[in-house]
Amino acid sequence: MSEFIRFIALRYFTQSHRKHTLSLISLISVLGLSLGVATLIIVLSVMDGLIAKTEEIVLKSTTHANVYRLIGNFDTYNEVARQVQSIPGVLGATPVVFKEALLMSEKGLATAFLNGIDPVGYKKISDLSELVVKGEYECLAKGDRCRYVAKNLFEMSELDDFLGEKPQLFPAILGVDLAAKLQVSPGDIISLVTSGSRKTVGEDAVPVSGNLVVAGIFESGMYDYDSRYLYAGLEETQKLLEIGHNVSFVSTKVDEPGKILDFKGLMTDRVGGFPFAVQDWRDLHKTTLKFFHLQKLIMFIILVFIAVVASFGIITTLIMLVIDKTREVSILRSIGAKKRVIRGIFMLDGFIIGLLGTFFGSVFAVLICLLLKNVEFQISKEVYFFSTLPVQMSFMTFAVVIFSTLMISVAATLYPSIKASGITPVEGLRHE
Questions:
Q1: Do residues 49 and 161 both lie within one domain?
Q2: CB-based burial of residue 27 (10 Å sphere; 0-12 exposed, 13-18 middle, 19+ buried)?
Q3: Strand, coil or helix: 174
Q4: 16 domain residue, yes or no
Q5: If DSSP codes are grouped into helix, strand and coil, which group holds residue 76?
C-alpha cells in the first residue's frame, strides 16, 4: 500500500464536511464491533475454561487408562499390573472393581458406582486421598485406625436380615453430593444392594447387600463424580460381591496424559492384545468432552453474526464518507488517480474502523474475563458440572476472533469502495 493511499485515507477519516455526523456514525460502528468482538472472546474463553476444567478434574480425580479383559474372569490382574507398570512413563497400575449399586440411609436413597480399590496402590494413580474434605482416606486401608464411631449399626442391618445375609460392615468414602442426597456424615451407616452374587434361585440372581460405614467424604468439584461415586477397599468389595479373586479392570496413570494414545498402544502390546483392551481417559469421557467442543463451535458460529451485523455500521460509515467526498474523489480522478487507488483509500478507512473495534473489544473482553476469574460467579453444578464459572483466555481464541472480525470488516468495505472508484471526474465537479 502506497504512502499516498495512507495519507489520503487518514485525512478522509479525520476530516470531513459533515464531521459531527460521520464521527457519530463511526463511533457507533466502532462500539458495535467492539461489543461483538468482546462477546465472542468472553463466550469462547468460558467454553475453553469449561473444557480445561473438565480435563483437569478428570485427570486429577480419576485414572488415565484402564486395561480390561474382554472375555473370561480377570484374576491375573497382578501380573497385568506389573506388565503395564514396567512401561517407561507409567507412574502406577492398580486393580479396581467397578459396580453400580443402590444405597440407602435412614433419610435418603440413591444409585451410585461402587469402586473397590487398593488404597495404597490407588494413591499412586489418583489424587482421591487429597480430595477428602471430611473423614480419613486411610480408613480404607485399616478401619481400626479411623476416628469415626459407627452409628445405628443394628437398625441398618435389618435389610441384611431380610435377605438372609450376615451383617457386613466396611468403610467407604462418598462424594460430597452423594452424601448430601443420603444425608450422611462420617460415622453414619448406609446399606448397599447390588447384583453380583453367584447364588441363584431358579434362573434369577439373588442380590447381595452389606452395610458400609461412611469413613470419609471427597469433593472433586465435578458433579458427576461427587454425586455418584463411592470408594471401598478391594478385598471387602470382592467379598461383598462374591466375585472371588477377580476385578473389573486395572487402572493406570501416566506422566504425560496428552500422549495417552501412545501409551495406549504400548499397553496393548505389553499385555498381548486380545482378550485384553485399553480404554483411555478421552474414551471414558468422550461424551462430555465432545459436548463442550460442539457447544463451543455452535456458539462461535452464532455469535460471529454479531460481528456481521456490526459490519453494516462500517458499510454505512463508508457510504456516508463516499457521498461526503464525491468532489475530492472527482479531483483525484481528474489528476490521474486510478480506480484501484480510490478503492484502496476507502478500504483502508473501513479497515481502520474494524481495527479500532477489534482492539477495544479485545481489551474489554480481557477485563471482563479477569473479573470473572477473580469473582466466583456461582452457577448450577447439576447442569454445568461445576459450581463456579471457569474462564481460560487462550492466544488461539483471541487470534481466531481477531482474524475473523478483521476479515468481516474488510469484506464490509468492498461495496462502498467499489462505488467510490466508479465516480467520474465530471460527476463530482458538475455543480462546481
A1: no
A2: middle
A3: strand
A4: yes
A5: coil
pLDDT in tens, 245-279: 888 898 888 888 878 888 888 888 888 878 888 88
First CA to last CA distance, the chain? 31
Strands (DSSP E) contained in 10-89 are 65-69
Overall domain count for the chain: 2
Residues β-bridged to residue 378: 388
| Residues sharing a CB contact under 8 Å with residue 223, sequence separation 6 or more, in sequence order | 177, 381, 382, 385, 386
pLDDT tier for residue 4 given thresholds of 50, 70 and 90: low
**Domain interval for residue 212:** 77-274
Q: Give the DSSP per-residue string, 105-140.
A: -SS-EEEEEEEEE-HHHHTTT--HHHHEEEE-GGGG
pTM: 0.65
Measured between alpha carbons, how far is residue 230 from residues 12, 371, 431 in Å?
70, 36, 87
Burial tier of 253 (Cβ tally within 10 Å: 0-12, 13-18, 19+) = buried
b/e map of 257-292 (b: 16 or more CB within 10 Å)? beebeebbebbeebbeeeebbbebbbebbeebbeeb
* Sole residue written with cell 476444567: 53
Looking at the fold, whether 183 and 250 belong to one and the same domain comes out as: yes
* Structure-block grid coordinates of residue 368: 471482563
Same domain, 257 and 303: no
C-alpha 311/C-alpha 319 separation (Å) is 13
> Which has the higher per-residue pLDDT, 154 or 373?
373
Instruction: Determine the Cα–Cα distance for residues 423 and 432; give it in Å rounded to an integer.
Output: 15
Q: Is 164 exposed, middle or buried (0-12, 13-18, 19+ CB in 10 A)?
A: exposed
Kind of pairing between the strands at 208-218 and 229-233: unpaired
Complete DSSP assignment for 209-242: EEEEEEEEEE--S-HHHHTTEEEEEHHHHHHHHT
Q: Quick one: cell of 428?
A: 463530482
Residue type, 240: L
Measured over the CA atoms of residue 59, residue 64, residue 70 and residue 75, the dihedral's sign is: negative
Beta bridge pairs of residue 117: 96, 233
Task: Name the burial class of residue 417, with classes exposed (0-12), middle (13-18) and buried (19+) by CB atoms within 10 angstroms of its CB.
Answer: buried
